[in-house]
Amino acid sequence: MCSPVLVCALRGIDAFRALGAALQGWTRSRDRLSTGDSLPRALMALTPEVTFRQAILFFTEADLVAGKAQHTKLTQISFSPVVGESWRGRAESLFSFLQAGAQLLCTVLLIKPGVWSHGLPRILRDLHLEKFCVVGMKHLELGVAAAASLLPCELQQDPAAVEAHCAYLTSGTALVLCLQRPNAVKKLMDLLGPEDPQLAQALDPRLWRAQYGTSTVQNGFYGSRSYAMAVQDVKLFFPEGLCCAQGQPVQEQEV
After folding, report:
1. Distance of alpha carbon 19 from alpha carbon 212, whole angstroms
2. Residue among 121, 220, 139, 238 at smallest CA distance from 180
3. 3-class secondary structure, 243
4. Over 90: is that where the pLDDT of 205 sits?
5. pLDDT score recorded for residue 81
6. Which of 43, 39, 9 is nearest to 23 (CA)?
7. Which label site among 60, 92, 113, 176 has the fewest CB atoms less than 10 Å from its CB?
8. DSSP for residue 115
9. How does 118-150 read in b/e, with b if 16+ C-beta sit within 10 Å?
């Protein structure tokens, strides 16, 4: 090659999709600016396996872990609160992270009033088929504040929408499940589909909101929309802890 290249090892939530979307936008901007080769081009690995094979071509363990080389190209640091101790940093090896495989994560599924009482056996069967493990379960009557906290930010700005959703969510008993599996948050969102059951029906009749929902208010389910929200939802609905859950404690996951 006649020109130098920059090789980066990156880590983030939903990294492949997020980086792919960012590069796609950057490429469109690049093509509008120049039709030649004066601007740089970017390539990315598309799977964890390819990432690992390419990483070992360009980096060593010392390059990726603090304290093993005088000049560290990349350091993976995570922070976790420890009872009785101050915040501490922990260096993680990218190689160890990739070799360990997908981490078990928790997410929360709330089955709304009127749905779980007649659909629970089928829902539990489908969760089992999708390799979810139920590590927490309780039925409860939501208060107005808890019901409002489950709404997307855009809906919380609409008083009429908040009133309609809260009236429904507090009209009966809901069933809350804490579910665990690799990539749990995204997998559950993929199963539920869009908030609007009609849109879900148009996309795929097998989506859960297409099967169980009747309107944007009575759409059958609430699911944690992000990993950060899943951690908060677990703390909200299961403050006493989970049954047989594996992985990091919720206090560490919150960071």
Report:
1. 34
2. 238
3. coil
4. yes
5. 40
6. 43
7. 60
8. T
9. ebeeebeeebeeeebbbbbeeeeebeeebbbeb
Across residues 208-236, what is the average pLDDT?
Answer: 93
Q: What is the pLDDT at residue 52?
A: 76
pLDDT of residue 19: 84
Q: What distance in Å separates the CA atoms of residue 247 and residue 255, rounded to the nearest whole number?
A: 14
Residues of CATH 3.30.70.141 domain(s) within the chain? 104-238
What's the mean per-residue pLDDT of the chain?
A: 78
Dump pLDDT digits (tens) for 159-203: 999 999 999 999 999 999 999 998 899 999 999 999 999 999 999
CA atoms within 13 A on the CB side of 99: 8
Q: Both tokens of residue 41? A: 């081009």
57, two tokens: 């071509």
